[in-house]
């Protein structure tokens, strides 16, 4: 059964898709919106229409192969929701926020790894090669100069980086 399409020959017809209902037009078998904007979810099309316009969305969908349209609609809905939440940056704002979180978590992970190595170095108290081992630890932290300095200070003071 075709979702949201009415038949043109007077037989029983299903309700129009969300786009045709919002745009107040007859939903046909060829409606490009019907498979992706069901009548049960009118908000989905309304937000996409508000941000991109029905004509633009129709052109985009018609230019895509049928197997890519569902993914395109999903992306359009996501971007439209992001634009409503953040009209200036849209998805880019969300991506930037997530990248900042990843960076912060990477620093926390590096500090945790450094603290583990620092504790291991302290347990090796009677063995030689501390400075070589410490240099290996510092180089494993990458280019984070402040992280390396924190580790060095913590190891010298023999205290936790998290205290």
From TrEMBL:
Coiled coil spans: none
> InterPro entries recorded for this chain?
LOB
Domain called LOB: residue spans: 15-116
**What domain of life does the UniProt record list for this protein's source?**
Eukaryota
Q: Which Pfam families match?
A: LOB (PF03195)
The family classification in the record reads: Belongs to the LOB domain-containing protein family.
Q: Supply the name of the protein.
A: LOB domain-containing protein
What species is this protein from?
Eleusine coracana subsp. coracana
């Amino acid at each position: 059964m075709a979702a949201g399409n009415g038949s043109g020959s007077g037989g029983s017809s299903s309700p129009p898709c969300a786009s045709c209902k919002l745009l107040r037009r007859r939903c046909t078998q060829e409606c490009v919106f019907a498979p992706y904007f069901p009548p049960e979810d009118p908000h989905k099309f309304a937000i996409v229409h508000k941000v991109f316009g029905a004509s633009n969305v129709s052109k985009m969908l018609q230019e895509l192969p049928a197997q890519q349209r569902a993914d395109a609609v999903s992306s359009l809905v996501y971007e439209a929701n992001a634009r409503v939440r953040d009209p200036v940056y849209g998805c880019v704002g969300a991506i930037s926020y997530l990248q900042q979180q990843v960076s912060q978590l990477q620093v926390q992970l590096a500090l945790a790894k450094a603290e583990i190595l620092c504790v291991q170095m302290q347990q090796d108290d009677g063995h030689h090669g501390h400075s070589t081992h410490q240099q290996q630890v510092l180089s494993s932290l990458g280019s984070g100069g402040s992280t390396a300095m924190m580790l060095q200070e913590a190891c010298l003071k023999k205290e936790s980086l998290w205290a």
